[in-house]
Amino acid sequence: MKYKRFEELPVWKDAAKMAAGMFKFSARPVFRGKGDLANQLQRATLSISNNIAEGFERGTTKELITFLYYARGSAGEVRSRLAMMQMMPEFESLRPQIDWYKQMVESITR
């Protein structure tokens, strides 16, 4: 199947869904007083879908691949922050959501 728009890409849809959810998730009070954690999670998560879109719009396979690697790097940032949160006792009550986001970002990376 040939895609004409990045919005048609299943991986972009998943990444955009995850980014939209991350804004709501990271607005919880537990993120207050944790430095820039919420903002970093939001920006890294949003960067995944944005890099997929930018690479697609560049129009060449070489540039698409480059931007997919950028998206993968952002996914690594998200996984790292989520893994760190799993080690913090104040995020214990959010473990199911953290696990879901980790699974989602791993799926997008594949």
Layout of helices and strands:
Layout: H1 10-25, H2 37-58, H3 61-86, H4 95-109
Helix pairs in contact: 1-2, 1-4, 2-3, 3-4
Provide an overview of this structure:
The protein is mainly α. The chain has a domain at 36-109. The protein contains four helices and no strands. Helix 1 (10-25) runs antiparallel to helix 2 (37-58), helix 1 runs antiparallel to helix 4 and helix 2 runs antiparallel to helix 3. The longest helix has 26 residues, at 61-86. The mean pLDDT is 96.
Question: Could you give a short description of this structure?
Answer:
This protein is mostly helical. It has 4 helices and no strands. The protein has helices spanning 10-25, 37-58, 61-86, 95-109.
> Structural class, from secondary structure content?
mainly alpha
- Which spans have pLDDT < 50 for at least 5 consecutive residues? none
In terms of DSSP E residues, the strand content is under 5%
The shape is elongated
Roughly what is the average pLDDT, rounded to an integer? Answer: 96
Number of DSSP strands? 0
- Determine the fraction of residues in helical runs and give it as a percent range: over 70%
Distance between the termini: 19 Å
Order of helices and strands: HHHH
Rg, Å, rounded: 15 Å
Largest sheet: none
| Count of alpha and pi helical runs | 4
Which key terms come to mind for this protein?
mainly alpha, 110 residues
